[in-house]
């Protein structure tokens, strides 16, 4: 397969401080129009998980939770607030590694990450105990946003919902696709491509959605930049007509987990 000739990532300025019920699609189209541009067929809109969670009303007040016995034991073991431990348990299918640095959990969606994705950064009221949960179904959220963008712009785009996640054996976080629509999540080149010496590729599966999420997160920033959306242009070869398999298709099956 030929290499890409050009790939651009553009952080989108001028977006509002999102709250429950607002339209991300309309805000994207309005911000692009203010810059004299608009969405094009094959564009990929990478959207920070936090704004999706905000417009879906996924914030909770930890003070409203009553920690159970399991939560109190987890809190004592990890030095966490018992209410936070309860929130993590509520959002998790499995606690994999309880540690003072982070509680590594398998989220209900199947993603493995620290603290089940629960976070207070860039959340109004975070200092007072308000935290933000992931969308209930990130792939469904991506599909809805894709449909809204198509209706608002009249073009076919893809959507990636990205969050920053750590990686086994590596320091630091990388933007990762937790929801996806209209995009090939993986490019399986096993038995199809060849290397420079003509040998058939045996193990190459490219994490397309994660790579795009990581690239976009670099320009979006994770602090006070205020740019929770980036438009990726030039990667149309990986977009598809339908919604595609979603980010869950990129998760390694539990029975193949090599780090348990």
TrEMBL record:
<keyword id="KW-0436">Ligase</keyword>
<keyword id="KW-0547">Nucleotide-binding</keyword>
<dbReference type="GO" id="GO:0046872">
    <property type="term" value="F:metal ion binding"/>
</dbReference>
<dbReference type="Pfam" id="PF01996">
    <property type="entry name" value="F420_ligase"/>
</dbReference>
<keyword id="KW-0460">Magnesium</keyword>
<keyword id="KW-0630">Potassium</keyword>
<dbReference type="GO" id="GO:0005525">
    <property type="term" value="F:GTP binding"/>
</dbReference>
<protein>
    <submittedName>
        <fullName>Coenzyme F420-0:L-glutamate ligase</fullName>
    </submittedName>
</protein>
<dbReference type="InterPro" id="IPR008225">
    <property type="entry name" value="F420-0_g-glutamyl_ligase"/>
</dbReference>
<keyword id="KW-0479">Metal-binding</keyword>
<keyword id="KW-0464">Manganese</keyword>
<dbReference type="GO" id="GO:0052618">
    <property type="term" value="F:coenzyme F420-0:L-glutamate ligase activity"/>
</dbReference>
<keyword id="KW-0342">GTP-binding</keyword>
<dbReference type="InterPro" id="IPR002847">
    <property type="entry name" value="F420-0_gamma-glut_ligase-dom"/>
</dbReference>
<feature type="domain" description="Coenzyme F420:L-glutamate ligase-like">
    <location>
        <begin position="15"/>
        <end position="234"/>
    </location>
</feature>
């Amino acid at each position: 397969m030929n290499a890409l000739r050009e790939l651009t990532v553009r952080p989108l300025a001028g977006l509002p401080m999102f709250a429950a019920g607002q339209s991300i699609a309309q805000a994207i189209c309005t911000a692009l129009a203010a810059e004299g541009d608009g969405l094009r067929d094959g564009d990929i809109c990478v959207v920070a998980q936090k704004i999706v969670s905000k417009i879906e009303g996924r914030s909770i007040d930890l003070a409203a939770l009553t920690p159970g016995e399991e939560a109190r034991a987890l809190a004592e073991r990890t030095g966490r607030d018992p209410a936070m431990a309860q929130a993590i348990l509520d959002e998790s299918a499995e606690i994999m590694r309880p540690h003072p640095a982070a509680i590594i959990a398998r989220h209900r969606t199947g993603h493995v990450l620290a603290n089940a994705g629960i976070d207070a950064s860039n959340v109004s009221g975070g200092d007072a105990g308000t935290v933000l949960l992931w969308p209930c179904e990130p792939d469904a959220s991506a599909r809805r946003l894709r449909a809204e963008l198509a209706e608002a712009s009249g073009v076919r785009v893809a959507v990636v919902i990205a969050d920053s996640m750590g990686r086994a054996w590596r320091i630091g976080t990388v933007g990762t696709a937790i929801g996806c629509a209209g995009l090939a999540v993986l490019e399986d080149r096993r038995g199809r491509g060849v290397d420079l010496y003509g040998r058939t590729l045996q193990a190459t599966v490219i994490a397309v959605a994660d790579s795009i999420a990581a690239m976009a997160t670099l320009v979006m920033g994770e602090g006070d930049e205020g740019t929770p959306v980036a438009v990726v242009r030039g990667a149309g070869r990986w977009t598809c007509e339908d919604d595609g398999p979603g980010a869950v298709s990129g998760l390694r099956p539990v029975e193949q987990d090599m780090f348990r």
